[in-house]
């Protein structure tokens, strides 16, 4: 008879229920758990919050879970001295929310603000209804989506509480809810598991299997004593919730399962229905449970005390120059002298006039390049006539200095279409003159003007592109975003604007500046001051690939010549120097191998001729554009491929969503692909219809192919192709979600830049790279125009050699490097001339030359996998602990060696809880936008590194 885990569990339950509990207890080894043990204070509801905390501390606890969403109680709790100091934790607050009630969003936001202060999770029951029909579940999911969105916006963890008698009764049913939320983009919602509900439901005998199944999603658990047969009794919670030292069910089975699953979150003592410490007949159930816990459990001690990790410097190429608003009225010569004395090497000048531009251009330090002039600002009125004579007189000076023209179309809050049109007309006139003089025009979207904030500036740029000016860039001023209430959106705004940024402003400031009627006082402070952590902004600029000038905003700060000058220039530069690692302009993004052309323009040529032509152009590989058995056999046996000197990383297969799959052909070529290490790059195409039924047909085909690829050891990469069922990155992510649910999480997707440009996503590329990063198996690159989507010219405007097109490619490459992409990169060549044609223009050689200018070749080496059976293409090494990390499915995966322990922190030093360990690989959940600090502690030492948002 085979002794299964479930049968063994059942036998243990019978042994203990038969009275053997005391005899076995002495033989039981201690259970190791990382999570803190705290009481869920439902039985203390009659006590004040301060008294609840005092009682818990007296017993020996270092935290407690709050029993209800009562605003004043939560506010009191988070402001208690021991909670503020971090000595006493409040890991959760319970929210029993009726599935039919309307959510009071302002009330919820006010509670979330308090919750964020102490990293308290919202522990939500979707309750008040036993009806678990699809319509009720749909309503519950809709409400959970609203709460998930608010929690994400406020940076608070949402944990679903599966509760008996509600829409989702058990942890396993909770998985279904999480799956639905992931389809809507809320993969950060987590799950809790409660012994009382599982045992009452009848899952006591299989609790180990339940824990193992839900472990990757757990963020909270609760434990208590209970009777083994409680699921048979109609006695409420009397036999399902007891002190830990009572009941016939052995709660150690549950705790041991949590330990085996490497659960590291908080564990709460459930106290519902038990006697309150204020009762005259109080039976010390909490103290007894605490003693029993200490008898059973050993908490794994931390490697060291929790301290904010040392923050690595943020790499940026651009210099910090002072935007000299605070030096208004000071002569040009004195401004330069003051800034040089403070340590600056450049200035952004806040006015445009011939006299000043001539003085700047003639200054000896500017002429010798020892001091730079990054920009001159021109504040114009949308209604006044442009002073083109003055403009034409200063543009030669700007060109001589290499300075940009920073232009505001201001003095009017009216943002009607007609007013915007006037402003864009003015920008276009100036752009033509700037272009003629070789000067960069940068639109400054200024608060209280026609175009506000960087998103307003992007609207202006879109209009200018349609007028033939794709070269114009936009500025992003952090102080203006503060004043507009965008502090929480800064990383997303940087990602959105990155391809079009010409220069950026930086300063300290308060995140709630938009609420204050104080001019610029709360929005413009010296660096290092204010409640906003400017590292988040700088990290976003770094990961987006920004290489331009950074100007220190000084509007409203004290003049350096005044008697009460507060040294804000010197203070800001000191903070900058301690925060930013200056990257030399020659630095290049580190990207993977190989970089090969996609052989779209080699049709009809023999394999030998293709290899020779590609090698003659300087490449060492090719991406094949079609599945042909004879061609694949020839190239897989070519001597240069066999030797490994010539790579074939990918073979494209363009299929129809309606035609039957040629599985005979597929099965015949998969061995050749495996031999070459090539991925199958599959399109489900020839149909623009994107209905649910058509998508289902396409997914069904992907699944069939994925089954065969997995059996043959070949990676399948979905190609979300324009004009097909799944278009671009957004469509590809939909396909990935469906394939994961159907048992194929190993399938990858591609990102083809030419398709994103044709769809109209030029302004979203860094954002799309970040979203696609966990699933990327292939990237295709080409030159292209930012306005390719508006041109009816096939691929002419979106597929060009790398040295052509108005779309800036470097931010795209930096974004790929920023998310650790290490896969193959394909040079898209659709529609370009063939090397075998008489009119061939050496576009392959030109593209390769440009690539080599941009990309660091030192990383063109094989990178090790994490371990067998784990997808592990995107990895970085962290010395000296030999740590490897990558992104997958929206989570950070970290492998450590030598008993080291990884920990994740926000930029302000708060630790991210909820990591799970599986055989040495730690999985960290996403906690919203923003970069994180990964700190690894082990025998080899302690080291910290920054990882981008995930």
Folded structure, characterized:
The chain is an alpha/beta fold and 950 residues long. It has 31 helices and 34 strands. The protein has an eight-stranded parallel barrel with strand order 11-12-13-14-15-16-17-18, surrounded by six helices. Strands 2-8-7-6-5-4-3 form a seven-stranded parallel β-sheet. Strand 33 and strand 34 form a beta hairpin. The chain is globular and about 90 Å long.
**What is the overall pLDDT average?**
84
**How much helical structure, as a percent, in the residues?**
25-40%
Globally, the shape reads globular
Radius of gyration, whole Å: 31 Å
Structural category is: alpha/beta
The main sheet comes to:
8 strands, parallel, barrel
Strand percent estimate: 15-25%
Count of β-strands: 34
Low-confidence stretches: 1-27, 301-310, 858-881
Distance between the termini: 48 Å
How many helices? The count is 31
- Strands of the widest sheet, in order across it, are 11-12-13-14-15-16-17-18
Task: Spell out the blueprint of helices and strands.
Blueprint: H1 5-25, E1 31-33, E2 37-39, H2 49-59, H3 71-78, H4 81-84, E3 92-98, H5 105-117, E4 121-127, H6 134-154, E5 158-160, H7 171-183, E6 190-194, H8 195-201, H9 207-214, E7 218-223, H10 252-260, E8 267-269, H11 285-296, E9 297-299, E10 314-316, E11 320-323, H12 332-342, E12 346-349, H13 354-362, H14 364-367, E13 372-381, H15 388-401, E14 404-410, H16 417-437, E15 441-443, H17 453-466, E16 473-477, H18 478-484, H19 490-497, E17 501-506, H20 534-543, E18 549-553, H21 568-579, E19 580-582, E20 595-597, H22 607-616, H23 629-636, H24 639-642, E21 650-656, H25 663-676, E22 679-685, H26 692-712, E23 716-718, H27 728-741, E24 748-752, H28 753-759, H29 765-772, E25 776-781, H30 810-818, E26 825-827, H31 843-854, E27 876-878, E28 883-888, E29 891-895, E30 901-905, E31 916-918, E32 921-924, E33 932-938, E34 941-947
Parallel strand pairs: 1-9, 2-8, 3-4, 4-5, 5-6, 6-7, 7-8, 10-19, 11-12, 11-18, 12-13, 13-14, 14-15, 15-16, 16-17, 17-18, 20-26, 21-22, 22-23, 23-24, 24-25, 25-26
Antiparallel strand pairs: 27-28, 28-29, 29-32, 30-33, 31-32, 33-34
Helix pairs in contact: 3-5, 5-6, 9-10, 13-15, 15-16, 19-20, 23-25, 25-26, 27-29, 29-30
């Amino acid at each position: 008879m085979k002794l299964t885990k479930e049968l063994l569990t059942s036998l243990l339950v019978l042994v203990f229920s038969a009275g053997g509990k005391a005899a076995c207890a002495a033989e039981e080894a201690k259970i190791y758990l990382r999570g803190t043990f705290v009481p869920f204070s439902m039985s203390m509801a009659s006590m004040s919050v301060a008294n609840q905390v005092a009682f818990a501390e007296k017993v020996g606890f270092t935290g407690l879970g709050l029993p209800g969403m009562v605003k004043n109680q939560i506010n009191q709790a988070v402001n208690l001295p021991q909670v503020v100091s971090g000595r006493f934790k409040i890991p959760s607050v319970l929210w029993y929310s009726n599935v039919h009630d309307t959510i009071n969003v302002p009330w919820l936001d006010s509670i979330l603000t308090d919750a964020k202060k102490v990293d308290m999770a919202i522990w939500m029951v979707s309750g008040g209804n036993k009806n678990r029909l699809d319509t009720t579940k749909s309503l519950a999911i809709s409400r959970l989506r609203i709460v998930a969105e608010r929690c994400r916006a406020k940076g608070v963890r949402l944990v679903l509480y599966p509760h008996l008698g509600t829409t989702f009764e058990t942890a396993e049913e909770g998985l279904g809810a999480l799956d639905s939320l992931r389809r809507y983009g809320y993969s950060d919602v987590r799950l809790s598991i409660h012994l009382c509900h599982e045992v009452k439901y009848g899952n006591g005998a299989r609790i180990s299997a339940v824990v193992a199944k839900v472990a990757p999603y757990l963020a909270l658990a609760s434990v208590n004593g209970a009777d083994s047969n409680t699921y048979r009794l109609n006695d409420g919670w009397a036999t399902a919730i007891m002190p830990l030292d009572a009941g016939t069910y052995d709660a150690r089975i549950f705790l041991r399962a949590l330990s085996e699953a490497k659960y590291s979150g908080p564990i709460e003592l459930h106290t519902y229905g038990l006697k309150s410490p204020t009762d005259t007949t109080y039976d010390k159930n909490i103290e007894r449970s605490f003693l029993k816990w200490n008898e059973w459990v050993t908490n794994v001690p931390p490697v060291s005390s929790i301290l904010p990790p040392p923050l690595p410097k943020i790499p940026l190429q651009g210099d910090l120059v002072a935007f000299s608003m605070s030096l208004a009225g000071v002569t040009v010569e004195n401004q330069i002298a003051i800034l040089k004395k403070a340590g600056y090497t450049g200035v952004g000048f806040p006015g445009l006039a011939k006299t000043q531009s001539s003085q700047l251009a003639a200054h000896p330090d500017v002429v010798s390049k020892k001091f730079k002039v990054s920009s001159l600002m021109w504040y114009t009125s949308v209604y006044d006539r442009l002073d083109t004579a003055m403009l034409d007189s200063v543009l030669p000076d700007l060109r001589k200095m290499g300075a940009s023209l920073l232009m505001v179309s201001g003095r009017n809050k009216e943002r009607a279409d007609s007013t915007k049109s006037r402003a864009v007309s003015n920008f276009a006139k100036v752009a033509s003159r700037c272009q003629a003089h070789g000067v960069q025009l940068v639109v400054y979207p200024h608060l209280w003007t026609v175009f506000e904030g960087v998103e307003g500036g992007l609207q202006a740029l879109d209009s200018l592109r349609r007028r033939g000016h794709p070269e114009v860039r936009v500025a992003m001023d952090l102080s203006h975003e503060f004043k507009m209430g965008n502090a929480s959106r800064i990383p997303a705004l940087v990602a959105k604007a990155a391809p079009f940024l010409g220069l950026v402003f930086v300063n300290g400031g308060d995140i709630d500046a938009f609420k204050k009627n104080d001019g610029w006082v709360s929005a413009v402070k010296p660096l290092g001051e204010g409640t906003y952590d400017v590292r988040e902004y700088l990290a976003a600029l770094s990961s987006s690939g920004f290489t331009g000038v950074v100007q220190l905003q000084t509007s409203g700060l004290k003049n350096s010549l005044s008697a009460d000058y507060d040294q804000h220039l010197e203070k800001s530069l000191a903070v900058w120097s301690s925060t930013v690692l200056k990257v030399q302009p020659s630095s290049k993004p580190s990207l993977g191998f190989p970089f090969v052309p996609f052989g779209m323009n080699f049709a009809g040529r023999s394999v030998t001729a293709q290899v020779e032509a590609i090698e003659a152009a300087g490449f060492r590989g090719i991406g094949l554009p079609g599945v042909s058995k004879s061609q694949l056999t020839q190239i897989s046996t070519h001597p240069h491929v066999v030797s490994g000197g010539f790579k074939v990383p990918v073979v494209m297969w363009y299929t129809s969503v309606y035609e039957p799959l040629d599985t005979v052909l597929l099965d015949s070529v998969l061995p050749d692909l495996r031999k070459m290490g090539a991925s199958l790059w599959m399109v489900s195409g020839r149909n623009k219809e994107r209905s649910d039924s058509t998508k289902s047909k396409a997914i069904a085909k992907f699944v069939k192919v994925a089954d065969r690829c997995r059996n043959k050891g070949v990676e399948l990469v979905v190609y979300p192709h324009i004009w097909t069922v799944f278009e671009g990155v957004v469509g590809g992510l939909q396909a990935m979600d469906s394939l994961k649910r159907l048992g194929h999480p190993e399938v990858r997707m591609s990102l083809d830049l030419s398709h994103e440009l044709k769809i109209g996503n030029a302004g979203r590329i860094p954002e799309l790279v970040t979203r696609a990063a966990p699933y990327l198996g292939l990237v295709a690159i080409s030159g292209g125009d930012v306005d390719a989507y508006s041109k009816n010219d096939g691929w002419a405007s979106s597929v060009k050699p790398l040295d052509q097109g108005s779309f800036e490619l470097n931010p795209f490459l930096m974004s790929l490097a920023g998310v650790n992409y290490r896969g193959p990169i394909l040079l898209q060549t659709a529609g370009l001339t063939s090397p075998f044609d008489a009119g061939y223009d050496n576009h392959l050689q030109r593209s390769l030359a440009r690539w080599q200018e941009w990309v660091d070749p030192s990383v063109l080496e094989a990178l090790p996998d994490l371990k067998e059976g784990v997808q592990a293409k995107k990895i970085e090494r962290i010395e000296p602990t030999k740590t490897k990390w990558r992104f997958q499915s929206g989570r950070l995966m970290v492998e450590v060696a030598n008993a080291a322990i990884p920990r994740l922190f926000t930029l302000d030093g708060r630790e991210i809880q909820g990591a799970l360990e599986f055989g040495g690989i730690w999985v960290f959940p996403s906690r919203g936008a923003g970069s994180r600090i990964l700190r690894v502690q082990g025998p080899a030492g302690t080291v910290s590194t920054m990882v981008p948002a995930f």
